[in-house]
Amino acid sequence: MASSYLEGFDLPPFSDEDEEGEDGLQPECAPLPFLRFKTFQVDWPRINFVYTDCDEVEIHSQCFLPDELLRGLDSDAPLKQVEVAVLHIGLVVLAWYWMAFGHQRVVISAGYLNDEQVAWWEWFYAQCFAEFAIVNGFTEEQIRVSVEVDAPQQVDGGCLVHAPERKPIPSSDSGEARVLCLLGGGKDSLVVHQMLQDTGVTSPTWFYVGDGRKEFQGSWRLQTVVERSGSPVLVMAHDFQTEALAKLRRSKRRLQPCGHPWAALVGFDAVLVAILAGFDYIAVGNERSANYGNNLRVGSIEVNHQFDKSFDFESRMHRYIRRHLAPSAYYFSALQHLWEVQIAWLFCQRSADFLDAFMSCNDSNGLNEWCCDCEKCCFVFALLAAWLSPAEIAKYFGKNLLENPKLLQNFRSLLGISSQDSGGRTAVKPFECVGTPDEVLLSLFLAREASNFSPDGLPLALASLPLEGGRECVDLLSQYNPENLLPEWLIPKQGTVESLQDKLAIHGSATLEQKWKSFWSAVMSETLKIRQ
Questions:
Q1: What is the 3-state secondary structure (H, E, C) of 302-337?
Q2: Exposure string for 473-494, b = 16+ CB within 10 A, e = fewer
Q3: 294 and 419, same domain (yes or no)
Q4: What is the pLDDT of residue 166?
Q5: Nearest Cα residue to 262 out of 222, 290, 302
Q6: Which of 98, 285, 398, 417 has the most CB atoms at less than 10 Å from its CB?
């Protein structure tokens, strides 16, 4: 059994039900229940994953590869490398089914993992299930899943599962880079795509992963984004057999699933596609804000709804991919150096053509309409309000969310203000992919400062919420996060920064951080001047 990255805890035996024997006594040495990743079959373009609950109930999950890969498959991709990549997709999908049982043992029979890999997956599952633990009342010990491997190690010259680690040497020529750009439909992926084009990537390829085969085709917004961008798209989809899974949950412990690692799943999906189609880079749009959790802990584990978008996860996954899956693939976030509020400005300035088409709501109708009711909608509206008038934003959302009294509690929650305490900012951060309370405060403060757009006075939210501290958060705009994996050709250069604001004069030996601060100071000054 491998030593885990999360070692140091004595895990007591735990079972789903403390069943009694016929004599009324607890059975001795009762085996712990387990979830087994039994096998997978690849029948292009379909992949079928098979799991079992204690080797009794068999569970199936499927994913479907992009049709285009069948017509342009990279013949140099070793079959064993492809199989290993598929195995790892199944290891992430396993999380969906674990949430139906909460077993403390996971047995991997579908493929071999060495001790180092086992430790990585034990770390992953513990982080992944932290939100689940809060919602379902699990302890830290109960989510520290023990991963056991009973598949034999195979010796194969084409297998990269034990390939030596290679030091990342990203290309200095963006024009030669083959980049797979992950598409989520929101502002982040659009900003990434624009950045790639601005730095000379000739033809970044979109990659979209759907929850169901019809999701992409059913969204006019996604198709509009792809069409306007002028870039090709590869579409992959998962079928989690949700009806069967729901029935299974009802027959078991009635646990509430939450915190699914979608970003991690899309990342491992992208690794497989990169192997099959020969992509060098996998560019995701995970921002600095994702590094901050929900102000909750499960024992020693910080709960972070966005843990698989954090830099901790990004750096670990980057190393794991290059060591165990695809040494030539460079996984990175193009936005890790930026806060959400900075990304929102870039989106409004550089990707304004997509304002009527982008979509970030998780409760939308087929990814086509903003629900205008959830905390994610309120968060995005607040970000945009820092740089655009609420009246203009309302044209794209269908409503002015700052005027709805029913949404004030959403904004208070995003600001970190609990419903019981109107003064402090210690509330639990919503379990959504949203930024920090300081970013929301700054965004609403900037919107209030530029409030002359309305002859009728301030919108309700701007008038009633405590926004005085926003001035102290202005420095967020000038911050640059040096903890990132940006390829050399994507790191902001002096010329790039200057081109974004012609009035800037950045000369001499100023550091990147100094240039960045000067740039954002000018951006804020010019924006407020124009809007006032």
A1: ECCCCHHHCHHHHHHHHHHHHHHHCCCCEEEECCCC
A2: beebbbebbeebbbbebbebee
A3: no
A4: 39
A5: 290
A6: 285
Give percent above pLDDT 90 in the chain.
68
b/e sequence 311-340, b meaning 16+ C-beta within 10 Å: bbbbbbbbebbbbbbbbebbbbbbbbbbbb
pTM of the model: 0.87
Predicted confidence at residue 367, as pLDDT, reads 79
In a domain, 3, yes or no: no
| 324 and 358 co-located in one domain | no
* Number of domains the chain contains: 2
Assigned domain for 142 exists: yes
Give, to the nearest 10 degrees, the angle between helix 115-128 and helix 79-98: 30
Cα separation, 118 vs 98, in Å, equals 17
Per the prediction, the chain carries an average pLDDT of 84
**Position 389: which residue type?**
S
The span from the CA of 181 to the CA of 284, in Å, is 6
**29 found inside a domain:** no
* 27-57 pLDDT tens trace: 444 568 999 999 999 998 999 999 999 999 8
**Helix (H), strand (E) at residue 250:** helix 242-251
Choice between 455 and 13, residue whose per-residue pLDDT is larger: 455
* Residues 410 and 289 both lie in one domain: no
154 phi and psi angles, rounded to 5 deg = -105, 135
- Alpha-carbon Rg of the chain, whole angstroms? 24
pLDDT at 254: 82
What residues make up the domain containing 386? 354-489
For residue 263, give the H/E element and its range.
helix 262-277
Q: What single-letter amino acid sits at 118?
A: V
Residues 312 and 393 reside in one and the same domain = no
